[in-house]
Amino acid sequence: MTASAFDIAILGAGPVGRVLALMLARVAPDPARIALLQGTAPASTADAAPAADPRVLAMNHGSRVLLESLDAWPERSADIRSIHVSQRGRLGRSLIRHTDFDVPQLGSVVGYSGLYARLEARVAQCGVTLLSGPPARILEQDADGVRVAQGDTELRCRVVVQSDGAGGEDLRRDYGQHAVLTTAHAALPRPGWAWERFTSEGPLALLPHPHTPEAHSVVWCSTPQRAAELAALDNAAFSRALSAAFGDRLGRLSSQAPRHVFPLALSARRAQVQGRVAAIGNAAQTLHPVAGQGLNLGLRDAARLAQALGAWLPGPDASPAPALAEFAGARQFDRLITAGLTDLMPRVFATGLAPVEHACGLALLGLDLAAPLRAPLARHLLQGFRA
Ligand SMILES: Cc1cc2nc3c(=O)[nH]c(=O)nc-3n(C[C@H](O)[C@H](O)[C@H](O)COP(=O)(O)OP(=O)(O)OC[C@H]3O[C@@H](n4cnc5c(N)ncnc54)[C@H](O)[C@@H]3O)c2cc1C
């Protein structure tokens, strides 16, 4: 085993790990002393590689500002100017418009693969040490540092950041839902509109497509069995099922695109920091995709950690404990609120109990009528809480 020493090792080079690397590279006296460990996938799982990831991501205004400041905003994106939230078969809906908040757009949709490609290019230029190899693992930590192994290479690091997307074991909830992802065309398209429709099986979202202005990206959450059935339907039958579930607001929907299925669960760590190890992004909390909050929250983790470690990096012989404690304290409220909201929404709307569903419908109606209530919720979803 060869050994190398780093001030910080970032385990996992997804969007959150890469954004942290870019932010740290800007403030580090010597960016090469920061290692970004990228796990290479076996050739048999090439479809699961980030460059081929079919996810579309709704990025809020705050995330866009952050990514643009790093020159990491992908080439192609679609703006969301109105969000329509409704419930299938029940009264009530809520409409949020960009004009309500005096912003040019409420958010934007990007492809995971496009964002990843842009971040990959930026990280290659930023001066951090990029190490590719088998999945990295933490061997042990002591008072002075952490030992990490990547294949036959051993690293000695002062601080380790886990950004491997693997969630945590402290809090787990299986929603009994899988998401079917695809693209659909509408007979009456409405560019700039995002739709979130709650059904008893799970939420169905139609978002502006990042590459094709006249198309919509579909994220359809349902029971695992129903998701498997939907994925296996022929295009005509799937299009009919989608139109029936979504309703007629966009006219007839038709889909000819491949479908991909993602299992959905909540998994989170109670503590974001343990000794010299911090977790961010999906490694700290993997959320239900309802309301598109996971990556937005992860980017806020990365930005706050970069701020805390940036103050410690010029004197790395000192203990990083105060910086890490400051980070963990600052992130507590945002994590709690965002994880709580995204955990509650799919469960409340899917109880199958008519009185509860009516109450949800009324809540949506109330939200639409009561601007004072709606504004804080929408503002949180737009920007999140920053401490
Ligand atoms: C269907 C769906 C829709 C979504 N929609 C939205 C949305 O609209 N808006 C939003 O904000 N979020 C959304 N999300 C959530 C979003 O995709 C995640 O929050 C985001 O990808 C997390 O980024 P990450 O970098 O933390 O983790 P990941 O994207 O999982 O990246 C982690 C990386 O680390 C690598 N890795 C794993 N283990 C190791 C190891 N041991 N060593 C080295 N590398 C390792 C992995 O291969 C991967 O490349 C959605 C999720 C799903 C499933």
What does this structure look like?
The protein is of the alpha+beta class and 387 residues long. It has a domain at 2-54 and 115-170 and 266-343: FAD/NAD(P)-binding domain. Helix content is 34%, strand content 31%. The protein contains nine helices and 20 strands. The strands form three sheets. Strands 5, 6, 12, 13, 14, 15, 16, 17 and 20 form a nine-stranded mixed beta sheet that branches. α1 (15-27) runs parallel beside α3, α1 (15-27) runs parallel beside α6 and α6 (294-312) runs antiparallel to α7 (321-348). It is elongated, with a radius of gyration of 21 Å. It starts with a strand and ends with a helix. The model has no long low-confidence stretch (mean pLDDT 87). The protein binds flavin-adenine dinucleotide (FAD). Flavin-adenine dinucleotide (FAD) binds next to α1, β2, β3, β12 and α6.
Fold topology:
Elements: E1 2-11, H1 15-27, E2 34-39, E3 56-60, H2 61-69, E4 78-80, E5 82-87, E6 93-97, E7 107-111, H3 112-125, E8 129-133, E9 137-141, E10 146-150, E11 153-162, E12 171-186, E13 193-199, E14 202-208, E15 215-222, H4 224-232, H5 235-246, E16 253-254, E17 260-268, E18 273-274, E19 277-279, E20 285-286, H6 294-312, H7 321-348, H8 354-369, H9 371-383
Parallel strand pairs: 1-2, 1-11, 2-8, 5-13, 11-19
Antiparallel strand pairs: 3-7, 4-7, 5-6, 9-10, 10-11, 12-15, 12-16, 12-17, 13-14, 14-15, 17-20, 18-19
Bound molecules: flavin-adenine dinucleotide.
